[in-house]
Amino acid sequence: MQPNTNTINNKKKIFNDPVYGFISIPQEIIFDVIEHPYFQRLRRIKQLGLTHLVYPGALHTRFHHVLGAMHLMSKAVATIRRKGHEITEDEEQGVLLAILLHDIGHGPFSHALEHDIVNGVSHEEISGFFIDHLSKEFDGELDIALEIFSNNHPKKFLHQLVSSQLDMDRMDYLNRDSFYTGVSEGIIGSDRIIEMMDVKDGNLVLEEKAVYSIEKFLVARRLMYWQVYLHKTVVSAEFMLIHVLRRAKQLIQNGERLFGSPALLFFMQNNITLSDFKSNPKVLDNFAKLDDFDILGAVKVWQESDDKVLAELSKRIIGRKLFKIEVSKEPFSNERIAEIKQKVKTQLGLNDAEVEHFVHSDILTNNAYNESKENINLLMKSGKIVDVSLASDNLNISALSHPVEKYFLSYPKL
User: Fold this and answer.
1) DSSP letters along 86-139, please?
2) What single DSSP character describes residue 230?
3) What is the pTM of this model?
4) What CATH number is associated with residue 151?
């Protein structure tokens, strides 16, 4: 029987991406995965959570991001092959699917709620469950993708292209987040960096002449963290949303009836852990139904809650009446925090337990390059492998390898 060519051709779609231009779907299985409801859910999860409250253009989604990362991955595969390293067709399919699905485990508003919707289960672990489930559904066609994603594939450089300090994930999100926020400091020379990629002893390396491009990449990453990801107003909004969910979960588990979608209420009523994901298929099914709209729809309704804490926090998020936030290089004293709490308690008529949802103090950590983790290695002309922080002829990269910590104190404007 002749294959239906119309059906096959119909899977060779092209996406028009504002960052890279046209992105083509290289293989039919990739089209089928993109069409799956699990993947389409990423259209309903913003890449940068509540960042649009500071940068109004930051409304792009995880769907945008993973397509862009897949596009960069196809370029990286072509470069590495051209330099004489074998990547089979099955491995290419696997690594493209691994990067396409690397963020599929993100919950609503991404990192902001990662430890409140579920208890101590990372989005990487949930992504692994999704990929495993999809592989069973697609008769094992994603088995290699799962091996690469989980770092169980013998060619370690394939995993490093998906998850390392210079992976296609970071390459895309710096370019994309810079584009949508308008923060030009995040723009990196991803094409040049990819062209400089090579493999040595089974690991991903870059040619020696890439050192300045890497330096710019690391500087861009640090600047984007301070200007976008850890922007103090974004941090304030995210902590407010975290405490809205915590309060709602507290009330629901104390027997109060609150509005929520069935999927959201499932996670509000139960303290879901890693073992639940492994033992109960309903957990992943319910997680797959959760997106930003579940949270925002609930928060809009919770503005009218009889509980003053939940109502007040919800009104402030919906109306963008965000908490004031102070950032300092030194920790805030217990006396200062106690003084702020007393003022907030008096102003809003709160008790000791309730005020904990209104005054937040924590640490912001910006680590552009972690030398103790998987390093970015340069292949010198002599054939020697050198860590990028040692190869640079100035102090920028060495300085960037030290994490910068700042302390913040967030509370309602008094």
Assistant:
1) ---HHHHHHHHHHHHTTTTT--TTGGGGTTTSSSS--HHHHHHHHHHHHHHHTT
2) T
3) 0.92
4) 1.10.3210.10
Q: Which residues pair with 207 in a beta bridge?
A: 379
Handedness of CA 212, 214, 216, 222 (dihedral sign): negative
- Is the sign of the CA dihedral 27, 33, 34, 36 positive or negative? positive
Scan for tokens 């492998």, then name that residue: 385
Residue 57, domain extent: 9-212
**Which residue type sits at 154?**
P
Give dist(CA 387, CA 400) in Å, integer.
13
Low-confidence ranges of the chain (pLDDT < 70): 1-9, 111-113, 368-374, 392-401
Q: What is the pLDDT of residues 57-105, one digit of tens each?
A: 999 999 999 999 999 999 999 999 999 999 999 999 999 999 999 999 9
Give the residue among 391, 146, 136, 120 at the shortest CA–CA distance from 277: 120
Residues sharing a CB contact under 8 Å with residue 82, sequence separation 6 or more, in sequence order: none
Report the distance separating Cα 48 and Cα 301, nearest Å: 23
CB 328 within 8 A of CB 336: no
Closest by Cα among 108, 131, 48 to 245 = 108
Cβ(66)–Cβ(101) below 8 Å: yes
Tell me, what amino acid is at 12? Answer: K
Is 333 inside a domain boundary?
A: no
Bridge partners, residue 200, by sequence: 203
Angle at 41 between CA 36 and CA 45, to 5 degrees: 155
Answer whether residue 240 is part of any domain.
no
Cα–Cα distance between 127 and 104 in angstroms, integer? 5
Number of domains within the chain: 1
Amino acid at 307: D
Show the tokens assigned to 369.
């390059």
23-to-12, 179, 237, 281 alpha-carbon distances in Å: 11, 17, 34, 34
Answer for the pair 204, 157: CB distance below 8 angstroms, yes or no.
yes
| Domain-embedded: residue 388 | no
Q: What is the pLDDT of residues 35-56, one digit of tens each?
A: 999 999 999 999 999 999 999 9
Nearest to 164 by CA among 399, 375, 396: 375
